[in-house]
């Protein structure tokens, strides 16, 4: 059963399995485990970016296509919904029209880009996508009467997805895990009080509904992509990644496969963009189309581990957590280092980006294959140490004549 | 001589600004093994790549089973029944042996009987079935490369220097495999430097020099005529053996 759901592509490392379980359970029960609007937003962003990064990994990790237009498709999805709701009112019909319209626009644009990859290869293709993405960004900024320009647009979501909607009469129980852990660490003798402090009431509203729609979308998209990369189609992609000429010489029209991947990845990014607009309820060029965001997606993919798909889950979770909570961590450390010259300055909350960079360099140094890739390598090495293979391919005796 | 399965007339090809092939005329008879000999840089590999459409042809025609395939895209040529084993072997190293073969079976699931035949020819492939192909040794990779070309019945095999850097025992295994393919009436065009290997297998032979075929005939004729060997290949006194 599980093997069918995961298309027989298991995490293949105990540490990774544990890490994934923690992430998946946290996302699935998120609103009941983490109190506060900030935690809620972070959870939502993780779900959105799991989709975006998984789709990007399909291109980058499985097919070695470097594209910088991924945020453009993300933005098309977000603006599609925002503009449709703006023009047609906050109904589900409008949301649907927005999503379908955005998917259609993305399809056409990605088809053109995919066909372009027939003529323009590797770094040149990447540069073309960059140019297209920048053109799109400036277009959105210029057309302020329909896109809101730099100011962006508020997204008036349907009532059922907004804070005013209450599907349940009573509030539900929640337990704030960070408070609980902190309490257990600092005053373990006082369990009763710690427990009391950690419990909170979840007033389940439309935003939670939207969150669970996102969780369902992310799950569906991830499992679909996992199935895809483990299908005959996915094998051809990996063959293209390793040696495109060879794949052609075996009889595969690689341009068809490449174009299909570019389109598919664009459509998933569009869908994720629509989800982003509905949970964030505000879109502007900076949070959907910015080049910085593109670099972040690339980093999430690399940190997680390219060509693993599971890397999308790990990468986006670690990255978004760092992005949102590194400042807090620095602030917390800062209270102990206050007064020490230089150190005080270096550990200031304003310098979080510096530490973010340091973390990235360290992660690339210690996890050259990404977190997922490296964990798998370590697991394999451990297995081989425990029971060395009877005769590795290299150990095959060669009869001499 | 049997009717030709492949015919090159006046084939020219460039790599960047260099003219590599200056009008290659070559006939590969159906059901025979043709050896393409020649010094390094004579244009043997480029000839194979040009037949496959991997190097753009700038003049002349390639006719395969009566059809002009000169301008066909590579995948179409492959699906028409020509398999290519390049010198680099082009193994997908991160994929398993199984996945490499599954990919090569382009028209559907692998045929069990044929797979068994391949396992009999190359037992290591069975042994390392689920191992990444990148971990195979050089000889095993060559076995996989050839297995990949014959996992489905093909009419013509283009094989580029299969014996390069291999131990004698493995070269013998490869020769046996080619013998069996010959029995199955598969036409083969083999680029080779190893004259002993070529002499054992080849029925027809063509010798290239400086981007053109300078001699074509039967292998028996060339094998007997040492003067001709000396003249064409610089072989003599058992060199290259």
Question: What is shown here, in short?
Answer:
The complex is a heterodimer of chains A (401) and B (241). Chain A has 401 residues and is mainly alpha-helical.
Overview features:
heterodimer; A: 401 residues; mainly alpha; ABC transporter involved in vitamin B12 uptake, BtuC; two-stranded antiparallel ribbon; 4 strands; disordered C terminus; B: 241 residues; alpha/beta; Rossmann fold; 10 helices; 10 strands; 28% strand; globular; branched-chain amino acid transmembrane transporter activity (chain B)
Sketch the topology of chain B as an H/E string, one letter per element.
EEEHEEHEHHHHEHEHEEHH
Query: What order do the strands of the largest sheet of chain A run in, or round the barrel if closed?
Result: 1-4
Tell me which protein chains meet in the greatest interface and how many residues each side has: A-B, 25 and 34 residues
How would a textbook summarize the main sheet of chain A?
Answer: 2 strands, antiparallel
GO molecular function (chain B): ATP binding; ATP hydrolysis activity; branched-chain amino acid transmembrane transporter activity
Keywords (chain B): Amino-acid transport, ATP-binding, Nucleotide-binding, Transport
GO biological process, one term (chain B): L-amino acid transport
Domain ABC transporter (chain B): 6-235
Report on this model:
The complex is a heterodimer of chains A (401) and B (241). Chain A has 401 residues and is an all-alpha fold. In chain A, 72% of the residues lie in helices and 3% in strands. Chain A has one domain (2-167, 204-386): ABC transporter involved in vitamin B12 uptake, BtuC. Chain B has 2 domains: 4-81 and 156-233, Rossmann fold (3-Layer(aba) Sandwich), CATH 3.40.50; 93-153, no CATH class. Chain B has 10 helices and 10 strands. Chain B has helices at 44-51, 74-79, 97-104, 112-121, 123-127, 138-150, 168-183, 195-201, 219-224, 226-233; strands spanning 4-15, 18-29, 33-38, 57-64, 67-68, 82-85, 156-160, 187-191, 204-209, 212-218. In chain B, α3 (97-104) packs parallel to α6 (138-150). The A-B interface holds A 232, 235-236, 238-239, 242-243, 245-254, 392-394, 396, 398-401 and B 52, 54, 73-75, 78-79, 84, 86, 90, 92-95, 99, 102-104, 106, 124, 127-128, 131, 135-137, 139-140, 148, 167-170, 172.
């Amino acid at each position: 059963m599980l093997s069918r759901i995961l298309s027989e592509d298991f995490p293949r490392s105990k540490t990774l399995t544990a890490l994934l379980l923690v992430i998946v359970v946290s996302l699935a029960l998120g609103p009941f485990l983490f109190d506060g609007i900030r935690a809620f937003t972070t959870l939502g962003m993780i779900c959105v970016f799991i989709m975006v990064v998984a789709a990007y990994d399909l291109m980058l990790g499985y097919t070695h296509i470097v594209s910088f237009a991924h945020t453009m498709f993300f933005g098309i999805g977000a603006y599609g919904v925002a503009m449709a709701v703006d023009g047609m009112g906050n109904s589900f019909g409008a949301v649907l029209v927005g999503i379908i319209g955005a998917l259609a626009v993305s399809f056409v644009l990605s088809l053109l880009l995919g066909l372009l990859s027939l003529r323009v290869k590797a770094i040149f293709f990447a540069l073309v996508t960059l140019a297209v993405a920048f053109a799109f960004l400036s277009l959105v900024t210029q057309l302020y009467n329909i896109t809101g320009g730099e100011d962006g647009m508020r997204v008036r979501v349907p009532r059922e997805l907004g804070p005013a909607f209450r599907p349940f009469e009573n509030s539900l129980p929640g337990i704030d895990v960070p408070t609980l852990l902190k309490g257990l660490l600092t005053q373990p003798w006082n369990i009763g009080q710690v427990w009391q402090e950690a419990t909170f009431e979840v007033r389940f509203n439309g935003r939670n509904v939207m969150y669970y729609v996102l969780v369902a979308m992310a799950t569906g998209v991830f499992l679909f992509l996992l199935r895809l990369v483990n299908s005959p189609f996915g094998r051809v992609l990996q063959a293209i990644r390793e040696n495109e000429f060879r794949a052609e010489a075996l009889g595969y029209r690689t341009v068809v496969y490449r174009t299909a991947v570019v389109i598919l990845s664009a459509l998933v990014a569009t869908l994720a963009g629509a989800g982003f607009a509905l949970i964030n309820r505000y879109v502007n060029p900076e949070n959907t189309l910015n080049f910085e965001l593109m670099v972040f997606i690339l980093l999430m993919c690399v940190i997680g581990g390219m060509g693993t798909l599971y890397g999308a889950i790990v990468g986006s979770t670690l990255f978004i957590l760092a992005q949102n909570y590194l400042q807090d961590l620095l602030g917390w450390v800062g209270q102990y280092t206050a007064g020490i010259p230089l150190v005080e300055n270096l550990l200031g909350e304003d310098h979080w980006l510096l530490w973010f960079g340091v973390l990235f360099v360290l992660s690339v140094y210690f996890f050259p294959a990404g977190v997922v890739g490296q964990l798998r390598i370590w697991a394999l090495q451990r297995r081989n140490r425990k029971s060395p293979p009877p005769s590795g391919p290299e150990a095959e005796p060669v009869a001499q004549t | 001589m049997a009717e030709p399965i492949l015919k090159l007339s006046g084939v020219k090809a460039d790599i960047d600004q260099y003219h590599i092939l200056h009008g290659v005329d070559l006939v590969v008879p159906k059901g025979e093994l043709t050896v393409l000999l020649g010094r390094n840089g004579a244009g043997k590999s480029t000839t194979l790549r040009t037949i496959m459409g991997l190097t753009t042809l700038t003049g002349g025609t390639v006719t395969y089973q009566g059809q002009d395939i000169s301008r066909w895209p590579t995948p179409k040529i492959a699906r028409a029944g020509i398999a290519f084993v390049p010198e680099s072997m082009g193994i997908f190293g991160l994929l398993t042996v199984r996945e490499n073969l599954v990919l090569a079976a382009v028209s559907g699931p692998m045929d069990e009987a044929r797979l068994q035949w391949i396992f009999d020819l190359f037992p290591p492939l069975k042994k390392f079935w689920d191992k990444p192909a990148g971990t195979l040794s050089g000889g095993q990779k060559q076995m996989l490369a050839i297995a990949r070309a014959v996992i489905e019945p093909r009419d013509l095999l283009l094989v580029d220097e299969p014996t390069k850097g291999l131990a004698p025992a493995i070269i013998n295994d490869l020769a046996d495999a080619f013998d069996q393919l010959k029995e199955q009436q598969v036409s083969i065009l083999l680029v080779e430097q190893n004259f002993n290997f070529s002499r054992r297998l080849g029925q027809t032979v063509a010798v290239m020099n400086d981007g053109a075929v300078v001699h074509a005939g039967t292998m028996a004729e060339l094998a007997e005529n040492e003067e001709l060997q000396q003249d064409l290949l610089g072989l003599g006194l058992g060199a290259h053996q």
